[in-house]
Amino acid sequence: MSCDGLRLAQAGFTVCVVAETTAEVRHRVREVLDGYSGSQREFADRVGLDAPKLSKSLRGTRRFTAVELTRVAEVGGVTVGWLFNGSDDVERVAVPRRTALSDRDPVDVTEAGRYQQILDAAWHLIAERGYHAVRITDIARACGTSTATIHYHFPGRDDLLVETLRYSVRLAFERQIAELQTVDDAHERLLRLVELQLPTDGLLRSEWSIWLQVWNESALRPELRVLHSDSYTRWHETIARTIGEGQCQGLFTDADPEELTLTLTALVDGLGIQVLTGRPGRSVDRMRQVLQDFVDRNIVRH
Predict the structure, then answer these.
(1) Per the domain annotation, does 5 fall within a domain?
(2) Which stretches are labeled DNA-binding (predicted)?
């Protein structure tokens, strides 16, 4: 693909990359807040903010962080792309399309909130304990609801695993949009993408735990492989496009972007598994250094 063609192919993504926390973004956050069934303080708690900081961010005297905007989108049932652009057109990941609150039947908002609460609880429990160790009763207890309510939203245990994978993919993609909104330099963007894949304590390590379990289940159960493949494609394409853009900017070598992407993503996967399983000498810092060295030696033009 030519550089002009690549830029056109990336147009939807680039809009997100250059967007900033504008008055329009604040307006859409207010829309999400207006559609929330609880109080503003409860909303702030779920986003991970104290109420005064939320008020300042809504007034424009404080900027929302990328993590906060990602969480606003999750709590509100919208996408980060919609928060920035008023449109979900940038989302090409294999997950259910989310709609803006203003486009929904108001009756659905409370129900969507319950679904998200269950999904949140299941995601954290599976990440912490493992898929086969989590019972429906555990999820119901964590949500303060009944097992019948869990089964209403997720008829079988396999549905929980499938949806937690979709949730992880969505979290990763939304975080990429929020984190890379002002990064135009492809080299910096590639390094930031690598950083976003490191299994650091907290959210990223939990995402890695989910992925590790999905890999295991997919190896044993062919029916899960299509979902896994479709989900992984988003990550692969993001790296390949970033490398292609870096070549257009004259920052990267002219090597085949697909081959570079294959090797880089394989390194990320292998090192991530070694870090998660506690192999001696394999730490997040060591993983970061190996990946940065690979980018510098094999991708960056010198």
Answers:
(1) no
(2) 135-154
* Position with higher pLDDT, 127 vs 171: 127
**CATH at 134:** 1.10.357.10
Instruction: State how far the Cα of 85 lies from the Cα of 178, in Å rounded to an integer.
Output: 12
Residues 136, 279, single domain; the answer is yes
CATH number, residue 78 = 1.10.260.40
40 compared with 172, residue with greater pLDDT = 40
CB–CB of 83/28 below 8 Å? yes
Q: Which segments of the chain does DSSP mark as H helices, in order?
A: 3-9, 11-18, 23-34, 40-47, 51-59, 66-76, 80-85, 107-129, 136-143, 147-153, 157-179, 186-195, 203-220, 225-248, 257-276, 284-298
Q: How far is 257 from 190, CA to CA, in rounded Å? A: 13
Distance of alpha carbon 183 from alpha carbon 203, whole angstroms: 22
Domain that residue 285 falls in: 109-299
What are the tens digits of pLDDT across the range 60-94? 888 887 778 878 887 887 888 788 777 665 443 33
The DSSP bridge partners found for residue 252 are: 300
